[in-house]
Amino acid sequence: MMYMLLWIAVIIQRLTEVMIAKRNEMWMKNRGGIVIHEPLYKWIVTAHVLFLISLFFESYVRHQHSAPIPVIYLIFFLVLQGVRIWCLRSLGRYWNTKIVVLPGARLKKVGPYRFFKHPNYFVVGLEFIVLSLVFHAFLTAVLFPVIHAILMYVRIPEEEKALKIYDKVEYGR
Questions:
Q1: pTM here?
Q2: How many distinct structural domains can be found in the chain?
Q3: What CATH number has the domain bearing residue 34?
Q4: Fewest Cβ atoms nearer than 10 Å: which of 49, 87, 120, 140?
Q5: Domain assignment present for 52
C-alpha cells in the first residue's frame, strides 16, 4: 500500500510540474518568449512515462511491493525532492520542461544554478536511480539513468545553443 501511495504521489508531482511548465510557457510567450522546436522533447516525456510504468511493473512482477521500504533510499529521495523544488523555485516563471527563451532578458545564476548549469537534470538522473531502489526495481535503476543521460547529452547542448542565440536570457529573480 505504501508503495502505491508513493507511486501515485510521484505521478501527481510530475503532472503538477507539467501544469506549472505550461503556465510558465504561456507567461513567457505573452512577453515575447520563444519556444525552441525540439524533436527530442517527446522522447524525454516518453522516458519519464515509461520510467513510472517500469517502476510499477518491475516492483509488482518481482513481488517487491510487499517488501519493507528501504528508509535510507526514501530519505535520499525526499532530499532530492527538496533540491528539485529549490531548482524550480529558483527559476520561478522561467523554469520549464521545454526550451523557452525570452529575448532581451539577462542570464542570472540563482539557487543551485550558482553551482552548476543544469542541476535539475542531475537531480532527475539521481531520482531515476534512488526511486527505483526504493521500489526494489533494479533493472529500472540501471536502464533509465542511462536513457536519461543519453537524452541530456543531446538536450543540454540544444539548450545552451538557444541561450547563446538569445544571449541575455534571465533565469530567476
A1: 0.90
A2: 1
A3: 1.20.120.1630
A4: 49
A5: yes
Q: Give the range of the structural domain holding residue 94, as residue numbers without chain letter.
A: 2-165
Which residues make Cβ contacts (< 8 Å) with residue 127, sequence separation at least 6?
Answer: 77, 80, 84
In the structure grid, which three cell numbers stand for residue 87, read together?
A: 531548482
Strand partners of residue 2: none
pLDDT value, residue 173: 44
Longest dimension (CA), the chain: 54
**How many other C-beta atoms lie within 10 A of the C-beta of residue 149?**
12
Asked if residue 111 is part of any domain, the answer here is yes
Per-residue pLDDT of 26-51, as tens digits, reads 999 999 999 998 899 999 999 999 99
Rounded mean pLDDT, 167-173: 51
Residue at 71 is within a domain? yes
Q: Would residue 73 count as lying in a domain?
A: yes
Phi-psi region of 33 (alpha: psi -120 to 50; beta: other; left: phi over 0): beta
Centre a 10 Å sphere on the Cβ of residue 117 and count the other Cβ atoms it contains.
14
Residues 49-56 have a mean pLDDT of 97
Per-residue pLDDT reduced to its tens digit, 104-125: 877 778 999 999 889 999 999 9
Distance, CA of 166 to CA of 163 (rounded, Å) = 5
